[in-house]
Amino acid sequence: MTTQKLVNDLSYKIVGACIEVHKLVGPGLYEEVYHKCLEREFDLLGLNYQSELEIPFLYKGSHIDCKVKCDFLIEELIVLELKSVTDIHQIHKAQTMNYMNLLKVPRSILVNFNVTNLYHEGCEFFASKIFKELSKE
């Protein structure tokens, strides 16, 4: 059964993987480098994930043939979006929240690898209505 605690624990595991990659690789590289390193890290942790998942998009009840992709969907519960940019902008946050809502998952995490301290400067968490409806334990 999915609970808020399960989603929170998984979130910490994902951020821990991101911190490990950032610690070993450092800031200033292209997003693709972090993406590939995270695939390896998630494999080592035994996490089930989909990489560069194409998200179905409906408009007024019709499937729209367009490429909407999230970086990772982890354990069918959390969207992880990666950036390696000078500043996170509102559009990055909106993109991450839209992917979470389109996939109907409880949480999304936006990570910017182009920072000195990933945990304090580079991570933002978002919760959907689904998360708020989950039991706490």
Can you give a write-up of this model?
With 137 residues, the chain is α+β, with helices and mostly antiparallel strands. It has one domain (4-133). It is built from five helices and seven strands; from the N terminus they run H-H-E-E-E-E-E-H-E-H-E-H. It has helices at residues 4-25, 31-45, 90-103, 118-121, 129-133, and strands spanning 49-54, 58-59, 62-63, 69-74, 78-83, 107-112, 123-127. The strands form two sheets. A five-stranded mixed beta sheet has the order 1-4-5-6-7, sandwiched between helices. A hairpin with a 2-residue loop joins strand 2 and strand 3 (62-63). Helix 1 (4-25) crosses helix 2. The radius of gyration is 15 Å and the shape is globular. The N and C termini lie close together (10 Å).
How would you briefly describe this protein structure?
With 137 residues, the chain is of the alpha+beta class. 44% of the residues lie in helices and 24% in strands.
Low-confidence parts: none
Q: Fraction of residues in helices?
A: 40-55%
Q: Output the radius of gyration.
A: 15 Å
Order of helices and strands: HHEEEEEHEHEH
Strand tally: 7
Structural class: alpha+beta
Shape: globular
The number of distinct helices, counting runs of at least 4 residues, comes to 5
Main β-sheet description: 5 strands, mixed
Number of domains: 1
Strand residue percentage: 15-25%
Strand order of the largest sheet: 1-4-5-6-7
Average of per-residue pLDDT values = 95
How far apart lie the N and C ends?
10 Å
